[in-house]
Structures are given as structure tokens and as C-alpha cells.
């Protein structure tokens, strides 16, 4: 997050397009909450990856688009778009076929059709109570990430797309440092040039990913923008093949097909979302309506 913050700050200082400010208290509060929820989501995600099977943690993290579609109504003052939710569910089922989490692999019905003995028996490294607690932490992280994305959409074009990135990367850097100090976790520097180069690539990629993600959430319907995130699982399979020579099995191809179908469903649906002007949160919009009514009565 530190490279992301540095790059965002450099561009922020030297860009001539940043005329929009964050002088209002509400805007600063929402930017802080975006950074806070984003950091909580990242921490919970890595916590679940450490304590769960990687496939299970990945599957849980892809609940984001469904949560985001559900949060659109109470926060963005828009009607439910069931088409986006259906499309997200189709893509999520596709993700299940690709990542094949342990709770599916251990199912006898699935084992009957999945002829791969090396993965048919998945034994979790944690007991049932620890697993249930970790799943709750993971779901809380999914909710936090969904809230952070919804906040970006609620702010809309009232801010520059770099401002949420600055707050997110700054709060994440501070929060990570505090956790390292509080839990006495050692910090490891890169040991050679290759590790340093890989960290540099991660920082650059993370910066551009945040820029495009933030801008996409600002200008596109939130249900459609979040559903596009499912495509990253297809890119992951592609890189697996190119870098590691791992060829997807028949279940992965079925999952890819479902993900593409779900994504196509969101692209075909061109209904405009019914949200408040300027993408403002619902309670702010209602307060403004009430203030306008009182002003008209005084006149």
C-alpha cells in the first residue's frame, strides 16, 4: 500500500485536473470510511487465506458483487436490480466450479463425478469451531469491502478518483504498521533483487488496479461494475497456464462459461439505475429534500 500511496500522491500533486476538493465534513467522513472499510476488508481476506483453504477463501471473497448489489438500495437510494443479482449468482456458481472449495469437494455427489483422487479428499487444517469463526471473519471482510465500494459510488463524480485511493492506501499503511507493532510481528525486507522487483511490480499493478476500479465504480452502474470483477478468475486461470503450465480441468471450463454468461448478462442489461442525484447517500438526499421543503414553507 505504501507504493500505491506514493504514486497516488505524486500524481495528485502534479495533476492539473484535481479541481474538486474535499472541504466538506461529509465528504471527508466518507473518504475516511472508504479507507477504513477497505483496510478491514483486506485484513479479513488475508486472515481467511491464512486460516482456511485457499479455494474456500477465494470463493468467499467473490461474494462481493452480490453484497454490493444488495447494499445499493439502502445506501444509494436505488431500486433493487434483480437482473444484476441473478447475473452475479450465475457468475458466483461459475467461481465455485473453478476454485472447487473443500466444502464442495468433500461432498459425495461431487466426488462421484469428479475423478481426481488427489483433490477428492480435502481435510481442513482447523477444527470446526475455528473454521466457523474464520468464515465469519471472511464474511465480515466481504461486507466491509462491499461498503467501501458502495461509498465510492455514493460519492460519485463529486471527488477525483485519486482521493479515495489516497485515503485507502494511507489508512491501510498505518493500520498494517500498527498491527505489526501490536502483535509483535517481524517485518521482512526483500532479500534479493528479484523479490524487490516483484514487490515493485505488485505496487505498480496495485496502483493502476485501484485507479481503474475506483473510476469504474464512479461512472458505471454499481451492480454491473462489481459483476465485471468475476473476470479476474478467468485471468487467473490464463496466467496459471502461461506461467505455471497448469491446464484447467473440465469443471474449470464449465465455471469459465458460467462466469462469461453472468458477465454478458450484466452487459446486456442497460437499465439505468434509479439513484439519487449526484450519487449521494440516501439519508443525505432525504435530509436535503426535507431542508428544501422547510425552506419553501418559510418563503
From TrEMBL:
Write out the entry's keywords from A to Z: Membrane, Transmembrane, Transmembrane helix
Membrane topology term reads: Multi-pass membrane protein
Q: Where are the transmembrane segments?
A: 29-51, 57-76, 83-105, 132-152, 164-187, 193-213, 225-244, 250-268
Could you tell me which InterPro entries the record lists for this protein?
A: EamA_dom, EmrE-like
A Pfam cross-reference name: EamA
In this chain the EamA domain maps to 9-99, 135-267
Q: What is its main location?
A: membrane
Highest rank taxon of the organism:
Eukaryota
Q: Name one GO cellular component term.
A: membrane
Q: Which PANTHER family match?
A: ACYL-MALONYL CONDENSING ENZYME-RELATED, SOLUTE CARRIER FAMILY 35 MEMBER G1
Protein name in the entry: EamA domain-containing protein
Amino acid at each position: 500500500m505504501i507504493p500505491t500511496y506514493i504514486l497516488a500522491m505524486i500524481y495528485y500533486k502534479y495533476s492539473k485536473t484535481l479541481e474538486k476538493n474535499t472541504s466538506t465534513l461529509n465528504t471527508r467522513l466518507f473518504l475516511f470510511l472508504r479507507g477504513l472499510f477497505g483496510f478491514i476488508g483486506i485484513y479479513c481476506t488475508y486472515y481467511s487465506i491464512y486460516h482456511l483453504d485457499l479455494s474456500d477463501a477465494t470463493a468467499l471473497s467473490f461474494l462481493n458483487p452480490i453484497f454490493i448489489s444488495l447494499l445499493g438500495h439502502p445506501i444509494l437510494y436505488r431500486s433493487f436490480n434483480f437482473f444484476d443479482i441473478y447475473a452475479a449468482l450465475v457468475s458466483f456458481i461459475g467461481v465455485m466450479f473453478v476454485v472447487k472449495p473443500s466444502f464442495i469437494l468433500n461432498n459425495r455427489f461431487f466426488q462421484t463425478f469428479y475423478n481426481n483422487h488427489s483433490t477428492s479428499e480435502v481435510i481442513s487444517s482447523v477444527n470446526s469451531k475455528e473454521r466457523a469463526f474464520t468464515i465469519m471473519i471472511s464474511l465480515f471482510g466481504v461486507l466491509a469491502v462491499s461498503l467501501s465500494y458502495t461509498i465510492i459510488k455514493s460519492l460519485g463524480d463529486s471527488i477525483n478518483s485519486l482521493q479515495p485511493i489516497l485515503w485507502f492506501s494511507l489508512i491501510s499503511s498505518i493500520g498494517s504498521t500498527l498491527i505489526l507493532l501490536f502483535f509483535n510481528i517481524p517485518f521482512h525486507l526483500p532479500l534479493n533483487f528479484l523479490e524487490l522487483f516483484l514487490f515493485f511490480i505488485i505496487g505498480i499493478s496495485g496502483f493502476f488496479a485501484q485507479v481503474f476500479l475506483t473510476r469504474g465504480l464512479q461512472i458505471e452502474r454499481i451492480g454491473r461494475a462489481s459483476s465485471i470483477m468475476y473476470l479476474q478468475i478467468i485471468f487467473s486461470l490464463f496466467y496459471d497456464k502461461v506461467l505455471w503450465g497448469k491446464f484447467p480441468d473440465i469443471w474449470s471450463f464449465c465455471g469459465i462459461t458460467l462466469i462469461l454468461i453472468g458477465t454478458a448478462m450484466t452487459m446486456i442489461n442497460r437499465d439505468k439505475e434509479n439513484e439519487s442525484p449526484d450519487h449521494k447517500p440516501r439519508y443525505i438526499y432525504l435530509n436535503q429534500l426535507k431542508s428544501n421543503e422547510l425552506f419553501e414553507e418559510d418563503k
